[in-house]
Design goal:
Blueprint: H1 2-24, E1 30-35, E2 38-43, E3 47-49, E4 56-62, E5 72-77, H2 85-93, E6 102-110, E7 113-127, E8 130-147, E9 152-160, H3 161-174, E10 183-184
Antiparallel strand pairs: 1-2, 3-4, 4-5, 5-9, 6-7, 6-10, 7-8, 8-9
Length: 189
């Protein structure tokens, strides 16, 4: 009896030790990054790059998920008269082929302002002014509109679905929010 109990306890203990050790490790390190009038808590794995054009306030190279070949990026913009979700939704949807495209919209409130997340999946073909040389099937984009008291900020995290999924909560974490606190968003029309 003692031997059989011992045989069960030792393997179980060996399985639990890595879990207990992992619980003591710190969560992914973040750094505060100031983008115009907002501050983001950006994971250390996101590599800030020089914005590739004047419309971008900031851009980041996002780590690829295992097996993904295409790059994933986060772009942050803000411009006067940029419009709300109703005005930007056709542009964001237009970045995906209509065949097999799916969309979900949620909203929430952060310390910096109210926001809406548009989650698009399908074949990414690019923006109206910068089409992809080759469409990217199995893509995903999280487009976030953050409205502060003074401005609107537009975040677009786009890449292979697996890579974007792996960073979805980190994007929300950068804004100081969680998907658990979001509600379904309905267009104002």
């Amino acid at each position: 009896m003692i031997r059989s109990t011992f045989r069960l306890l030792v393997p179980t203990a060996l399985l639990l030790v890595p879990c207990l050790l992992a619980a003591d490790e710190p969560a992914d390190k973040t750094a505060d990054v100031k983008v115009k009038d907002i501050t983001l808590k950006v994971p250390s794995t996101w590599k800030q790059e020089e914005p590739s054009n004047k419309l971008r306030l900031a851009q980041f190279a996002i780590p690829k998920a295992e097996g993904d070949k295409e790059a994933t990026s986060l772009v942050i913009s803000s411009f006067p008269g940029g419009g709300g979700v109703d005005q930007n939704l056709p542009r964001w949807v237009g970045e995906f082929s209509p065949d097999g495209r799916s969309m979900k919209m949620t909203s929430g409130k952060s310390k910096q302002g109210e926001y809406v997340v548009v989650d698009l999946k399908g074949t990414h073909i690019g923006t109206s002014f910068a089409r992809r040389p080759e469409p990217l099937p199995g893509a995903r984009m999280l487009a976030v509109l953050l409205k502060t008291d003074d401005d609107s900020y537009y975040f677009t995290l786009v890449g292979p679905e697996k890579s974007v999924a792996a960073q979805a909560e980190a994007l929300r974490g950068a804004l100081g929010v969680s998907s658990k606190d979001e509600k379904e968003y309905k267009l104002e029309k």
